[in-house]
Amino acid sequence: MITYYIKPNIIVSGILFPLFMFLAFAIGKNAPPGTLIPGLIAITLLFSASSIEPVSIPIERRVKTFDRLLAAPISLHSLVFGESVSGFLYSLCIACLPVALGIILFATPIEHAPVLVIAMALTAFCFATLGTLFAAYPTENVGEVMSMLNTVRLPLIFISGVFIPISEIPQIGQFIALLSPLTYGNDMIAYAYTGTSLYSPMLDIAALLIFILIFQLVANRLYKKFNE
Amino acid sequence: MYAIEVSHLTKRFGTLTALNDVNFSVDVGETFGFLGPNGAGKTTTIRILTGISYPTSGTATIFGHDIGRDTIAARQSMGIVSETSNVYDDLTAWQNMIFSAELYHVGRNEREKKAAELLATFDLYERRNDKAHGFSKGMKRRLTLAMGLVNSPRLLFLDEPTSGLDVQSNLIIRDVITGLTREGVTVFLTTHNIEEANLMCDRVAIVNKGHIAAIDAPERLKKTIQSAQSIVVSFDHVSAGQFEEVRGLSMVNAAVKEGDKFRLYTEDPATVIESVMEYARTRNLRVISISTLGPSLEDVFIRLTGLQRTGGMIHAID
User: Fold this and answer.
1) In this complex, how many residue pairs, one in chain A and one in chain B, have their CB atoms less than 8 Å apart?
2) Across all residues in chain B, what is the average pLDDT?
3) Testing the interface with A: which of B52, B54, B90 to mutate, by most A Cβ within 10 A?
4) The complex's ipTM?
5) What is the distance between the alpha carbons of residues B135 and B127, in angstroms, rounded to a whole number?
6) Is A72 on the interface with B (CB under 8 A)?
7) How distant, in Å, are the alpha carbons of A193, B80, B115, B306 from that of B122?
8) What are the pLDDT digits (tens) for A48-84?
9) pTM for the full model?
10) Which residue of B has its CA nearest to A70?
11) Does the pLDDT value for residue B312 go beyond 70?
């Protein structure tokens, strides 16, 4: 997977895009940058975790190495899970950058470090599975998958309380926020940093686990359907 | 128990029926060829037999394991070499081998031993630390085949193994396949190279439009079309209109121009030889060579798949 980690698409989506979003919001809100670190971590996890498979799987389809994986003596469930693990590991490494940025540059305190680790791990795996799900679309064109994925993940930034608190968005937005996995990941990360959150960490964990399960099951169904 | 047993296999893509009630079996240790024109259903069959795709109805078993229900056990005993050399260009030959071995759960010690052995067999050991990106087409093909053998499969699927390769790669691959069959490995081979199937296969299936048109040993298939016996003749002088004249000779069913020779298909070679000699005398030509040939596997293939020869070309009639 290291081969794919350094593809331009991955670098732009996983590292540069979250950084630019952070800078835009930091300047726009005129807030101390340190207070935006939880949001930066959340969107870094979203964009880095969900970018690996939508790049690697269409490329593998194009060079036919994906058939090699499909024909190996491993279950489809294991293959889908394994694909998600690569996005998960990459995302966790990348998300350490904003954590370090907060500590080194802004001295942002972390109230509950273990909660932060759990939140980052679950959020990363959730979005890695989302990326694997979108990569099920049977194309050899990376751009096609990325376009579809961006129509989902870009709006998530604005409705999940990352830079704009959920309480400040319209009622309909607050309802939609409940359907976004980023809401729960961001909420738990915010709790780890500040000790306060919209929902309890246990609810956030449960919600993220449910999203992971749904994404995994849907991804399994789609890979099976599109291989027919 | 058969290595492969296919029963009433049907595959539909919407309104298109790619495979229609296909039945065949492959014995353990047999080299089985699967021949057919493009779109006949060869790749669909391989994708179902390897568990990548699923049949609409019917069953396929690999050494008694149902490929749909017992997929992992079925795949454990097979090696797959696809038509495209699907190696990882950014990995070295060695890394490709080890990754392939890991996919098939080959133990650490065994995988390194097997990787070294196979890379040596395919004349790639000296290049084991080079990325596949810089390999020639033939080298990539050899590496693909080596990767397909890393789990010591009992059944090897080969999709067009020697298509478009250089002579060296061709010879190495054919030698290895011959060696495997001596060791009792079952080989399922799809190829466009009919002569390759003729030389390598114990039996061949000719598939067309999703149906199996015939299954038998190559020699027995050839005997089914005695009308495809032929006379190959060359004259000392070739002139315009000569092809039309020899095609019109008595008892000639069809004719093909092959370089400086004419191949005349007939059910009665003796009469055609007499006609050819008479034709040469009247046109003041000298016969340089003349020989009688039995039907080739290509003739059987053309007959059964509905292709037809026209003036040295082969045309699809559907």
Assistant:
1) 49
2) 87
3) B52
4) 0.80
5) 9
6) yes
7) 58, 16, 11, 38
8) 999 999 999 999 999 899 999 999 999 989 999 999 9
9) 0.79
10) B52
11) no
Are B88 and A69 a contacting pair at CB < 8 A?
no
The pLDDT tens digits for B168-210 are 778 888 888 889 999 999 999 988 777 788 888 999 998 888 8
| B120 confidence band (pLDDT: 50, 70, 90) | very high
Cβ distance B138 to B164 under 8 Å? no
With 0-12 / 13-18 / 19 or more C-beta atoms within 10 angstroms meaning exposed / middle / buried, residue B79 is: buried
